[in-house]
Amino acid sequence: MSLLKDRYLKKFLILVILFCAPNVNANSNSKILEGILNSIIPERVKLSSSNEQYITGENLKKLLFSNEITIKTEESQTHAYQFNSNMTYEVFSYPQRNLLGIGTWKIRSGFQVDLTYTVPDHIYLEGFRSGLRDSYFIFVSNPKIIKVVGNIQNPNDYVVAEIVSELPKTKVEQIVKERIAKERVEQKRLAKKQAELERLERIEKELIAKDLAEQERLLKIKILEIKQFEAEKRLEKERLEKIKEEEKRNQAILNIFLIIGLIILLYFIWKKIKLKKEIKRQKFLSENYGERLIDESSNIIKSKGDIKSWDNKNKEYLGKVKKNIIDNIKQINKNTFENFSKLSKEISKFEKDIEKEEDLFKDLHKKYPFIKKIISARGQV
User: Fold this and answer.
1) CA 124, 166, 54, 71 torsion: positive or negative?
2) CA 124 from chain center: how many Å?
3) Residues near 333 by Cβ (< 8 Å), separated by ≥ 6?
4) How far apart are alpha carbons 305 and 77 in whole angstroms?
5) What are phi and psi of 340, to 5 degrees?
6) Are strands 88-93 and 78-83 parallel, antiparallel or unpaired?
7) How far apart are CA 143 and CA 54, in angstroms?
8) Which long-range contacts (CB under 8 A, 24 or more apart) does 253-260 make?
9) Which of 137, 212, 220, 225 maximizes the CB count within 10 A of its CB?
10) What are the sequence ranges of the domains in the chain?
11) Helix, strand, or coil here: 25?
């Protein structure tokens, strides 16, 4: 039972047993107690068995100075102890032999407690003790155990640590050297493996870096191609827009020239039509004197105001004109008699012309009533 491994519980049970059997004689009581204790303590450990053989004196020194003692505690911790001649000790893990702790130790001689119990030679430890609370170690050769004692004068106050092995220190040194050599080989192997791993990682990183660089280069090329494509597309668009603008401009210029040409053509057509109309009108006027007269008068006479203006201007020069005429007449009439007959003939002719003209005017009045309006416009009634 795990609870019976606790030494305090063991002590309590022993006291209970002794307390509950007061009327039993001494021999019977000791036999009962021994039977109970033998049932709760492992058979390889007998508290006061006469079969126990302690390691003492020179044998104890030889054991401790010459060997590495490996123990296993009740908590299943296995540790190796090396006791040095300078009274120090080291505790190593087993079998790895990694240093767990250090301390100092002393060999103490045994002494008699009473007639029933003599304490054998033992050691006292100050320092790391594998989690064991007590400092007194008593070495038993049969069975191979260590009693880790709390109260050195109480033969029942202890726990047991099993001695797993006793290896000579030379053997331990050889084992350590072999282990160190193996560790070095392993370290070299691991270092080589680590170097290989690092080399592979470096190669992998280089490959990744190269791959990334290549991807970046390809990406840059792709970006440049896209930018170039966009630039070309933009330039092509601009070129097409310029072509369209040029076409629009050319079309506008062409339209302007067409419009100008059309205007010129229409102008010439109009001029030709007008010229034809003018020729036709002139022909008509040449064939129709009345219309010609009306046309000419309309070109000369603008209004009655213009006629009055002309009369006023004529009055300014009328005296001079009369005088000039009279002078001319006097000059001409020097030969009046000679010319009288000529004048008479001319007058007769003139009167005939007047009569013809009057007849003509009468015919014209009948035929063209608007002549009267023209004469009125000229100030003649």
Assistant:
1) positive
2) 72
3) 339
4) 153
5) -60, -45
6) antiparallel
7) 9
8) none
9) 137
10) 1-41, 49-172, 290-377
11) coil
Q: How far apart are CA 171 and CA 55, in angstroms?
A: 22
Residue pair 123/132 in contact (Cβ under 8 Å)? The answer is: no
Q: What is the pLDDT along the chain (381 residues), one digit of tens a residue?
A: 334 445 555 555 665 555 555 444 444 454 455 555 444 444 333 344 446 789 999 999 999 999 999 999 888 899 999 999 999 999 999 888 889 999 999 999 999 998 888 999 999 999 999 988 889 999 998 889 999 999 999 989 999 999 999 999 888 888 888 878 888 888 888 888 888 888 888 888 888 888 888 888 888 898 988 988 888 888 988 889 989 888 888 888 888 988 898 888 888 888 888 888 888 877 877 777 667 667 766 666 555 566 677 677 667 767 777 777 787 777 766 666 566 677 777 778 777 878 877 777 777 777 777 766 676 666 544
User: CA-CA distance, 96 to 94, in Å (whole number)?
Assistant: 5
Q: Which helix (H) or strand (E) is 213 found in, with range?
A: helix 169-287
Buried b (16+ CB within 10 A) or exposed e, 31-68: eeeeeebeeebeeebbbeeeebebbbeeebbebbeebb
The residue written with tokens 């076409």 in the block is: 247
CA distances from 270 to 87, 232, 263, 267, 273 (A): 145, 54, 10, 5, 5
